[in-house]
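Table S2 (continued). Query chain:
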Amino acid sequence: MSLQSTPRSGRVHVGFFGRRNAGKSSVVNAVSGQMLSVVSPVKGTTTDPVYKAMELLPLGPVMLMDAPGFDDEGDLGQLRVAKAREVLAKADLAVLVAAAGRPLDAAERQFLTLCQARGLPALTVYNKCDLTEKRPEPAGDAALYISAKTGEGIPELKARIAALAPAALAPAPLLEDLVAPGAVVVLVTPIDSAAPKGRMILPQQQTLRALLDVGALSLTVQPAELPAALSALRQPPALVITDSQAFGQVAAALPQEIPLTSFSILMARHKGFLKTAIEGAAALSRLQTNDRVLIAEGCTHHRQCEDIGTVKLPGWIRSFTGKKPRFTFTSGGEFPTSLADYALVIHCGGCMLNAKEVQSRMALARAQGVPFVNYGVAIAQLHGILVRSLSLFPDLQAILQQKGGDR
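Corresponding output:
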C-alpha cells in the first residue's frame, strides 16, 4: 500500500459470505473488476479469506473480503469456518451470496439472523440468475438477483452496498472536536529501536493530519526535547499528546495545568471503546500472582528487546501490583475466542484494525465477563496519571474519580 493510500483500518469492510459454491468469489471478482479469488466448481475452493482494497463510489475507500463457506465440513473445514467468523468480526456490511432458483436454506437464514442480532447491515444477493427463470423471493430492498458471469445486477449491487453503509459507520473524531483552529499542540513521539527508519507510526500520522485539517499548530518532539520545546513557546500549549510508553517521563516534565493525553487514548475513543477501557483499568489493581493476562496487538512486527507489549507492559504490571501474573501474547488476526480463563485483556490501540474488529474483540471479552483495557489507558493507570490523561473528557474523568482514580 502506498503512502497516499487509505489504511485498511480506515476503510469500510464489506464481507461476502455464503455456502460453498454459491459463487462468492465470482461475485467479489465481478464487483472488483479483477480476478482476485480463485474460482472453481469444486466445493471449498476458498480456503483463506481474500482481501482487496478499492474505491467504491460514492461510498469511498472499501475493503472487500471474500470469506470461506460457512457450511464447510470436517476438521479442516471447521478451520475454514473459523476464518469466516474472523471475517464477520471485521465486517461493517455483510453480503450473503445465495443460489438463484431456490429459497434460502436454514443456514443462510441463520446467518441473516446473526447479522441482525449484531446490528450488522446485510444484503442478500441471488447469484447465477442466468441459469434459472425461478425467482422465489422478490428482489426488494434486502435482496437482489445477479449474475457474476454475465454482469447482470452487478452495477446495482455496487450501488446497494454504498447505500446500505450507514452514516454510523463513520468513526468518532480523533481529536478534531477537541482542538480549536490556531491552538498549539505538542506531540511527543519517541523514536525507539522498533520504529522503522524514516517512518512514524500510524496514530501519530493520523493525529498530525487531523491537526492540519483543524488548522492547529503542531510541534513534534522526542521526550528529552519536551522541556526545551515548552520553554521556546510564548504561551503554554493547549494540549500535549504523548506516545504511551513515555507517559511517566512526559507527565513528570509537564506542568499540571497543561492538558495531557496519549495517542492510544485518542485512538480508543476513535475506535469506540474508551469508556470500556477505562472501566477495565480497575482490574489492574486486582491482579494476583498466576492470574492470566492476555496482551493482544492488532499488527505484527519484529519484537525488539524493549518491546512495549511483551517486555515493558509486563514489567510495569509486576511493579504496580507487586504480583507475578502469567502473560499470553497474540498479534495480527490472532485472537482467542475463549477468554474465560483470563483475568484481563490488554489490547493495543487498534490503529491497524477497523473499529468493527476492535469492538468485536471488546464485545467478546465483555460477554465472557473479562475486563478489557487498551495500552494507553493501562499505562496511564500503571503510572498513576489516568485521571489527568482524561482531562479532555470530563464525564469519563468524573466516573473514574468516583471509582477511586488511579489507585
